[in-house]
Amino acid sequence: MAIDAATVRKVARLARIAEPEERIEPLVQELNGILQWIEQLAEVDTDGVEPLTSVVHATLPLRDDVVTDGGDARRVLSNAPSSTDGFYVVPKVVE
Amino acid sequence: MSELTKLTLKAALDGLKSKSFSAVEITKAHIAAVEAARPLNAFILETPEKALDMAAASDARIASGDAGALEGAPLGIKDLFCTEGVRSTAASKILGNFVPTYESTVTANLFGDGAVMLGKLNLDEFAMGSSNETSAFGNVINPWKSAGGGNKALTPGGSSGGSAAAVAADLCLGATATDTGGSIRQPAAFTGTVGIKPTYGRCSRWGIVAFASSLDQAGPIAKTVEDAAILLTSMAGHDPKDSTSLDVETPDWAPYVGKSVKGLRIGVPKEYRVDGMPAEIEKLWQDGIDWLKEAGAEIVEVSLPHTKYALPAYYIVAPAEASSNLARYDGMRYGLRAEGGNLTEIYENTRAEGFGQEVKRRILIGTYVLSAGYYDAYYLKAQKVRRRIADDFDKAWETCDALLTPTAPSAAFALGERNADPIAMYLNDVFTVTTNLAGLPSISVPAGLDSGGLPLGLQVIGRALDEGTVFSVAGALEKAAGFRAKAERWW
Amino acid sequence: MVEMTNAFTLKGRTGDWEIVLGLEVHAQVASNSKLFSGAAVGFGAGPNEQVSLVDAAMPGMLPVLNRYCVEQAVRTGLGLKAQINLKSRFDRKNYFYPDLPQGYQISQFEFPIVGEGEVIVDRIDGTSFTVRIERLHLEQDAGKSIHDLDPKATYVDLNRSGTALMEIVSKPDMRSPEDAAAYVKKLRAILITLGTCDGDMEKGNLRADVNVSVCRPGDYEKFRETGSFSHLGTRCEIKNVNSYRFIQQAINVEARRQIEILEDGGKVDQETRLYDPTKNETRSMRSKEEAHDYRYFPDPDLLPLVLDPAWVKAIEAGLPELPDAKKARLMSAYGLSPYDASVLTSDGDVAAFFEEAAKGRDAKLVANWTLNDLLGRLGKDGLEITASPISAADIGALVGLIEDGTISGKIARTVFEHMWDGEGAPAAIVEKHGLVQITDTGAIETAVDALIAANPDKAAAVKDKPQAIGWFVGQVMKETGGKANPAAVNEILKAKLGL
User: Fold this and answer.
1) Whole-structure pTM value
2) Does residue A83 belong to any structural domain of this protein?
């Protein structure tokens, strides 16, 4: 499935990565190259095969409903680019 | 003093225990070696003061008889492990000056056993790469040089290039690393060191910057198979904070090294004999087969029919998971925040400035294959192919106990040599990526040199949770190969 | 039986229109800690004080599932008479927003923990309708973005980030604003009875996304027959409506908006909208370009969730009496009308109140006092039962005083008035105002003798007209300040009048 420049721009937007114009065509080439190479998977017969969603043959562990964490706003804010009065400060969101 | 850096981990631990030297002494020796080796660019961050503090504490514990299994041993930590109070970067600009307020479980285990941290080791950005050429902190240079290679700087492999280079250059007694598609084993092969990726779930992923959740595993890079066994025993263990962590006992693996391989059935998968494989690697593989035969193992030819689909399946699954795991790097709560007129612009500029090209490429591929309309054709398909690959191994285990393959399709190549085409770079992982997909333990052991004098490695693959057999076979190979070569110091 | 006749129509310029409604209700799971992290859940903490490293999505953090949240979801599913899926899976829903630290929400897309069920809803007019439940799944809540503390920035508090939510998805079975509100009310009652959600809509612990579309009369029936959505109009989703009133208002204005577009020959765009109660209108939340592609895929940090059937059975065995069963029981045990029984069970707060008041008391008496006296009075003053000046315990105590003969029903009405005025507990009021019932037969006999002596003609007439005893009863009650025990008065009068 070949992708075009419009698709690359759309995907970049979905991924929230600003790709400058000069990167778009090269990306079209690079990504198409990779996708073409990936195409060979279509050769594999996977009818009736269950996808392997985990290599671990175990059951999902469950934890008790006890408060064991949190309680320290400074700790979670310590690396924030901007914070005030215990809040993270981020650019204005227009709803 | 510099003799202390030539010791294996085992010898050093024995020396520390017998008080032949102190932890502070051996740490100082390594600090000096690290400083002198800056041309290799193996370290992103050196932490000599912290190392000396930790060493002093180790000496106190040794004196009072409270020594842990790794007491006083100076190690390097791949900068993908979050270390409390010490800047952690994942070799990316996007983490800025992020200083974790928490310690990864694996490094907590090591430091809990008394190990000393020399610093954070360089890697491919977010562990995405096979040559340590994508780091925001510059390339790592392989301590090894090729005779007749015109003094060209070579790659140490990737993504754990810093870890492998540091161990090979005797800058530390061992290093932590991670392996998602071969990132422990391939650099080990390129640098003449030992690297093991354990069974998926053996080591906790808590506190390790996530790349591809269903594939990532931590493991050691070390000077000998025994050293690797000692380190893995400390690193591994069930962690209730990681839902994919296996609730199983961690064996003491060192005793498995040196165990006889008599009667073991060693499988040789025919599909690993790829087109264009260099003759030297073919020969090395045959050497390995012969050594194990001489040691009493039985050699069996097996077939893993879906081998060639492993790389393409990997390059769907890994980028897909990565595209989601890296969404949290958005400039809002930590790390780099770029300028922008509105929220979307700030997201887009932050991630454009903060991520390198390879990381961006993989995020875009991953986002694309998960996007509406493509999930079935790509991600779901790749997960089904992955099941087929795992089934291949299950079938092979009916007739053998371990598999022997080359680790990499070539020796270390020159920096810049394989950057033109992403796929040429991806092909470096052709022999290793299968075991990440199937979650199996696999190790690389240095087995010989190529015509240019560069190290070559052999890979041993074992059943899930059978690191014991892997270590035994690896030990046998190591003994037979008698690999003593060291990189000649040019730095 | 599917109720196909629909009374609710809106008159447009070009004819009649009907509404089709489906609701996605988000209910915060009542639990101590979050769905995948050990941070506390609850209101009132300072910003970011209930946030773990996992909730803040620090590098290398991983989710671990809370067993009790799973239990609560199963319990709710059983309360919805729904299928419990022993195998379910968590998926990531990927999008970027400052209150979504991971850049994805852990939810359940393809395999939810609960499947199809149903809720029966009573209307005020005594009829009822069924809302089929499509599914219930567990998911993480997001944090809170506050836009009005700084003109140039948004403040983010992640306390709510990672809290467990149950998303309850209905099929498009509701046809009027009142029905939609009644459905939410019934759902809330079930959740409160089960104890799986506190139902606090003001705090946002229970909120509804309302999907609204309009169609011509007859189209909905075709949809139900064929299952094809082509018979229905394009729907818009109104997000986060958190009161019954707003639900109804939002539906009304949105339906009108869509009808106007269609009657003008336009097309309704499928979009997400917000209801603005101050302007009484809905507004589009996102433009078309921003349409989300969530790229759902199974969360690789988690394994599939597999439930032990024995565990589910144990939860089922421990379920409290649900509103429908309680309604049936109140009707059969106490002869309450369907309406009265419904009132006592269909509102979560009334049900909880009644439950408390009736503890150890005559349930029928408590029902009467709650329905007639308390709710009647509350309604007159426009108050909800949560604002009642008389507590459930005190209603119970009042009934207790009637039961043990301390006061008569009539006196109890007086005591009620004093309680309403805030004078405190009934026993104290009875004491204070000397309202204890006179059961001393001697005193009553004295009063009766005096009365008969003063009214010999009336006394004689009683033999021919026994109903006239009523006058005597009234007089004795007046004499005794209303405190004589009516039964004793009757008995003594009958004896003395020779009846």
Assistant:
1) 0.91
2) no
Instruction: Work out the number of other CB atoms within 10 angstroms of the CB of residue C367.
Output: 22
| Contact check, Cβ <8 Å, B321/C303 | no
ipTM greater than 0.90: yes
Q: Are residues C418 and C488 in the same domain?
A: no
Q: Which amino acid is at C259?
A: I
Nearest CA to CA, how far is C289 from chain A (Å)? Answer: 10
Q: Interface partners of C (3+ CB pairs, < 8 Å)?
A: A, B
Same domain, C138 and C242: yes
| Residue A15 sits at the chain B interface (C-beta within 8 Å) | yes
Cα dihedral C61, C62, C67, C68 sign: positive
Residue B29: closest CA among B71, B59, B65, B1: B1
Which residues in B have their CB inside 8 Å of a CB on C?
Answer: 81-82, 88, 90, 95, 98, 100-102, 104, 205-210, 212-214, 240-244, 320-321, 323-324, 326-328, 330, 332-334, 343, 347, 367, 370-372, 375, 379
Secondary structure, 3-state, chain B: CHHHHHCCHHHHHHHHHCCCCCHHHHHHHHHHHHHHCHHHCCEEEECHHHHHHHHHHHHHHHHCCCCCCCCCCEEEEECCECECCECCCCCCCCCCCCCCCCCCHHHHHHHHCCCEEEEEECCCHHHCCCCCCCCCCCCCCCCCCCCCCCCCCECCCCCCHHHHHHHHCCCCCEEEEEECCCCCHHHHHHHCCEEEECCCCCCCCCCECCCCCCCCEEEEEECCHHHHHHHHHHHCCCCCCCCCCCCCCCCCCHHHCCCCCCCCEEEEEHHHCCCCCCHHHHHHHHHHHHHHHHCCCEEEEECCCCHHHHHHHHHHHHHHHHHHHHHHCCCCCCCCCCCCCCHHHHHHHHHHHHCCHHHHHHHHHHHHHHCCCCCHHHHHHHHHHHHHHHHHHHHHCCCCCEEEEECCCCCCCECCCCCCCHHHHHHHHCCCHHHHHHCCCEEEEEEEECCCCCEEEEEEEECCCCHHHHHHHHHHHHHHHCCCCCCCCCC
Which residue of chain A is at minimal alpha-carbon distance from B347? A16
Structural domain count of chain A: 1
Residues C244 and C336 in one domain: no
Number of independent structural domains in chain C: 3
In chain C, the residue whose alpha carbon lies closest to the alpha carbon of B369 is C295
Domain carrying residue C140: 10-314
CA distance C48 to chain A (A): 5
Residues of B in contact with A38 (CB under 8 A): 312, 315-316, 378
CA C112 to chain CA mean position, Å: 25
CATH class of the region B78-100+123-491: alpha beta
- Per the prediction, chain C carries an average pLDDT of 92
Binding partners of A (≥3 Cβ pairs within 8 A): B, C
> What does the pLDDT look like over B393-420, one tens digit per residue?
999 999 999 999 999 999 999 999 988 8
| Minimal Cβ distance to A19: which of B96, B352, B365 | B352
> Domain for residue A76, yes or no?
no
A89 touching C (Cβ < 8 Å): yes
Domain residue spans in chain B? 78-100+123-491
Mean pLDDT in each 10-residue stretch from start to end of chain B (491 residues)? 90 96 98 98 98 98 96 98 98 98 98 98 97 96 92 96 98 98 97 98 98 97 98 98 96 97 97 90 97 98 96 96 98 94 93 97 96 91 96 97 96 91 83 97 97 97 97 98 95 94
A95 within a domain of the structure (yes/no):
no
Is the CB of residue B370 less than 8 Å away from at least one CB of chain A?
A: no
In whole angstroms, what is the distance from residue B319 CA to residue B329 CA? Answer: 15
Query: Which of C31, C35, C52 to probe by mutation at the A interface, max A CB count within 10 Å?
Result: C52
